[in-house]
Amino acid sequence: MRFSLWASLSNPWADVLDGARHAERTGWDGVYVADHFMADVPGPFPPDTPNLEATAAVAALAAATERVRLATLVFGITYRHPAVLAKWAATTDHVSGGRLLLGLGAGWQENEHAQYGIRLGPPGERVERFEEALQVVRGLLDDDVTTVAGEHYTVTDAIAWPKPVQERLPILIGAKGPRMLGLVARYADEWNMWSSPALVAEHRAVLDQKCDAIGRDPGEIATSTQALVFVLDDDAKAEELEGAMGERPCVAGTPARIAERVAQWRDVGVDELIIPDFTLGTGSQRADALDTLIERVAPGFR
Q1: Between 13-25 and 283-296, two packed helices, what is the crossing angle to 10 degrees?
Q2: In angstroms, rounded to a whole number, what is the distance separating the alpha carbons of residues 95 and 104?
Q3: How far is it, in rounded angstroms, from Cα 246 to Cα 240?
Q4: SS3 breakdown of the chain: % helix, strand, coil, rounded to 5?
Q5: I need a labelling partner for 150 at 20 to 30 A (CA). Which of 190, 240, 263, 293 fits?
């Protein structure tokens, strides 16, 4: 399994950079960031929580790191025109020396669309628009010339040079509904969702069925997931904390207890665990938590 850090862009840039560089030095496999302009409302964070912009952050991390894979969870296609995003992705793949994983999603957060005057649309429309966007992105990344004549996007004899450093720049899709999982089966190299082990197993079974229906080997699509992680020294307190989180995917406790949960994800086919730093503190506290996870949990799964 791979172990990656989700660096919160609500932190100051110096803190984001420090966390990413610490992860690189200490053996983490990747660094992810979210793509939002503001906190969701209602949600766990105040509405005026700062949020750095994701394309700038990933490009900066590409120049500031040398080894870790860099990725997004996930670019909202509603406010990222796919042709422009493909150009950004190819450029950032060059800056990083071929380390970009392009995370894409159909868009969902209502308040950022409403405040910025960007159309979100109903769920069915979002899925249709997203499929057209995937055709545009994949075409511009891979092909000499791309034409897509859709209801939402039109590109005509479009070129995009240079191509990425990677022969096939991988696309991650964040999805959990049946129609979106159908797009994962057709277009994705990696699939992602927040999950417990049981939940990811349930949705992975649907994805495998979608792959079988179009004749694609399900093994070609990696599975990644994330949950809130709390590193504690008391498993009794950890069990109480997990219960208080309700349906929010969460694992808490000593390294041994966390490893038990990671084993459950591994056993249902998860290839990568992404750990948000939201619950790990900042500075030396976060560094200590990251070191505990990578030194005392990760080795048993590599």
Answers
A1: 30
A2: 20
A3: 11
A4: 45, 20, 35
A5: 190
Write down the H helix ranges in the chain.
13-25, 54-64, 82-96, 110-116, 123-142, 178-187, 197-214, 235-244, 255-267, 283-296
pTM: 0.96
The 3-state DSSP class for residue 148 equals strand
Distance CA 96, CA 166 (A): 11
Please classify residue 246 by burial: count the beta carbons closer than 10 Å to its beta carbon, then call 0-12 exposed, 13-18 middle and 19+ buried: exposed
- CA–CA distance, 159 with 190 (Å, rounded to integer): 26
Q: What does the alpha-carbon distance between residue 136 and residue 155 come to, in Å, rounded to a whole number? A: 7
Write out the two tokens for 161: 């040079």
DSSP annotation of 16 reads H
Q: Which of 301, 256, 290, 260 is nearest to 7 (CA)?
A: 290
Whole-number Å distance between alpha carbons of 136 and 141? 9
Report pLDDT digits (tens) over 40-98.
998 888 889 999 999 999 999 999 999 999 999 999 999 999 999 999 999 999 999 99
Name residue, tokens 């490009």: 59
- C-alpha distances (whole Å) from 205 to each of 46, 178, 184 are 36, 11, 13
Nearest of 180, 163, 161, 160 to residue 172 by alpha carbon: 180
Q: Can you tell me the distance from the alpha carbon of 68 to that of 61, in angstroms, rounded to the nearest whole number?
A: 10
* Exposure string over 171-209, b if 16+ CB within 10 A, otherwise e: bbbbbbeebbbbbbbbbbbbbbbbbbbebbbebbebbbe
The pLDDT tens digits of the residues spanning 169-216 come to: 999 999 999 999 999 999 999 999 999 999 999 999 999 999 999 999
**Pair of tokens at residue 224:** 């990644």
Which value, in Å, is the radius of gyration of the alpha carbons in the chain?
A: 19
